[in-house]
Amino acid sequence: MRAFISSVYLFLYAPIALVVLFSFNAGRNASEFSGFSTAWYGKALGNSFLVSALQNSLMIAFTSAALAAVFGTMAALGMERLGPRMRALFDALLAAAIVVPGVVIGIATLVALVALFSFVNPALASLWPGERPPQLGLGYGSIIAAHGLFSMALVTMIVKARIASLGRDIVEASSDLYATPLTTFRLIVLPQILPSILAGFLLAFTFSFDDFIIAFFVAGSKTTLPIYVFASIRRGVTPEINAIATMVLAASLALILSARLLIREKKSKSGE
Amino acid sequence: MTAALVAPAAAWLVVFLVLPFVAMLVFAFGERAPEGGYQPAFTFAQFANLPTRATAFWNTLMLAPAGALLCLLVAYPTAYYLAVKANPRFRLILVSLVVVPFWTSLLVRTYAWMYILGSRGIPNLLSMIGIEDVRLLNTPGAVLLGIVYGYLPLMIMPIYVSLEKLDRRLLEASADLGAKPASTFFGVTLPLSLPGVMTGVALVTILLLGEYLIPQLLGGGKVFFIGNALVDLFLQSRNWPFGSAIAVTLVAVVVVVLMVAMRIAWKVAGTRQVDLV
Predict the structure, then answer these.
(1) Least CA distance to B94: which residue of chain A?
(2) Residues of chain A with pLDDT under 50
(3) pLDDT (tens digit, 9 = 90+) per residue, A80-96?
């Protein structure tokens, strides 16, 4: 049993470790380590296409996760007071947003937006007083919208679970002591659900930062980091990709570990 | 107040989930415009055309459940160890170590195997000891390996949760009544962990049905899934109505898998309750 478990962990981590190791390889071969070097990192960070793809990914991940955190939390708070039918419908839509394959979300968003633009753009052109009317198109906005869908469902689920575990009694105590609903929210509810909101934000950020397939469909002419990495892999495997992959891994690792710490802190505080 | 809280999320769900689905459904009954894209029509031609992509459906419908079952074979003993055998002091760290890879880039993790199985990796090592011309990449085996690697954490977690919740007194009772460890496992532990197993298998199968990256990178166009056919139809040959018809069919398959899984889960949960009472 022990040997089996050890080999499972080896299986999970050895490939990642290999990529990290060979990102510091002076040579190009994956089978021999010919000396330590950080040259590939220098090469990767000197690549302006890569840096701009990274900036796009960070901006998209931050915006979609922030919107998801705000709207998802609001939804989790409001859903408590919905009627059973509306609540079931809402639950079903949230589950659908999580369970429908990314490739389908990407296609559906692409198709819907292109259909919408084919109506809106001519209308804009005829109404626009100036010479060059603005053209709506695929880009940052469509990626943020599509990522936001999954992220918002994720945040709602996490925060809702936290609210369900909250004791009703302190909320009632607070209103018995003449606190307004807003004060109760600010002083009692918010501090208790804040760690789960932050955890949801971080998970949403990680999801968006790592997503390839949805962005691949709706990015238009824009490039995100996973799209850039995918394109470079297809041009040929090079140690430079190892360096980029290592940086991506380090970033998501930092994010997911913070998220897990937040969720754990929340659990130990509530005495679970 | 409630309406204002729920409104943004509801609007988002309608505009970016419900309406896109309606649009996709409409496209699926349309025709391909001569220059690519979509032109309005009402025809079942796209659905009649589905058999031309039978290979993609066949590969997906064979390899997705096969991959999920392989995952299960590795995941169950791991989850069992974590929940029952592991030292409680290290349990949290060990569980975290399983979860963390799932939240790191699937692209990067799949790429790692491309690197290992590719010509500069294991085949190169083998040629040094005289074994030449080994092909590992771009085979169904490579795709299955990538699937197990990518989705193992997602299979382990629900099984671990159901095993962790298991009432230890039932195991003691079984042993006190003279059951051997093996019959306690097959008579008590395994049936009680079935909901977790069902959740894991259903979750992994559903995500695999829409997989694109793993067959693309490790199957190299030789082992392709529905996801690969969809990317080809939308981004290369620009046959949007046919692509939409395939996507609608994919969603239907997902719904069927989900319903079957829920059916079985209910049955399992139902009998468990009867047993306990």
Answers:
(1) A9
(2) 270-272
(3) 888 899 999 999 999 99
CB contact under 8 A, A112 and B19: yes
Cα-only R_g, chain A = 23
b/e burial code for range A174-201 (CB count within 10 A of at least 16 → b): beeeebeeeebeeebbeebbebbbbbbb
Alpha-carbon gap: B161 to the closest alpha carbon of chain A (Å):
15
| Dihedral Cα B189, B260, B223, B232, nearest 10 deg | -140
Q: DSSP secondary structure string, A147-158?
A: HHHHHHHHHHHH
Backbone angles phi, psi at A28, to 5 degrees: -105, -10
CATH topology of domain B14-276: MetI-like fold (1.10.3720)
In this prediction, does ipTM exceed 0.90?
Answer: no
Q: A36 - beta bridge partners? A: A25
Q: Does B107 touch chain A (CB under 8 A)?
A: yes
- A-B CB pairs within 8 A amount to 230
Q: Which CATH architecture has domain A51-269?
A: Orthogonal Bundle (1.10)
Number of H helices, E strands in chain A: 12, 0
